[in-house]
Amino acid sequence: MPDPSPPQLLRTPDRLELHIPGDSHPFYIDLSRVDGSSPQGRSLRQPIAKALGLKKGDPHRPTVLDATAGLGEDACLMAALGCHVTALERNPTVHALLEDALRRLAHIDPDTASRITLMQCDSITRLAAMSAEVVYLDPMFPAKRKAMQRKPMRLLQQLVGLDEDSDALWQAAIGVALRRVVVKRPRKAPPVGDKPDLVFEARSLRYDVYLTIARSKKSKGT
Question: Are 135 and 181 spatial neighbours (Cβ–Cβ below 8 Å)?
Fold first, then answer.
């Protein structure tokens, strides 16, 4: 029995789409759906802002390496909060879809789009030659999680797999983050690395924070 036809990337007049055999609805990434403009979307009270270390009255916004860019939603949100984000994506299909989504976002929200730099590369290898104040990780959620029931997340898992090297990625991130590593996890899932220094919880997920600047001082005995 022959293998089923693989998905195909097709460019329409409006966008780049992934056409999947047997599915009448092509897939594309739409970053305009990310709430980065409303008071709630830009609030520093939301867990991701707290995890990044953003504080009211402090204009500083850290540089961020998003080592698991995926659908780009978190990178877009962090950029909307004022951070300059370098987003790394190793899968060429996901990278192409995200690159096109950023091109379209630039016409809608040029300020946010201008703060995102997208690269196609293997994060574990590339991180050794990079640095940022914050390294952000969002390993693939387990398939049984509700988040994975969304079509975009199911498709993403089919394309990139289960992120079985997440432990190695966490180790690489700890070595290059100047201030902290932030790991997005299901609320009740075990941590990717060791026990986090800080945890910020949302309704169904949490952000584990590893303060690398504190760990560096501790290892030096200061």
Answer: yes
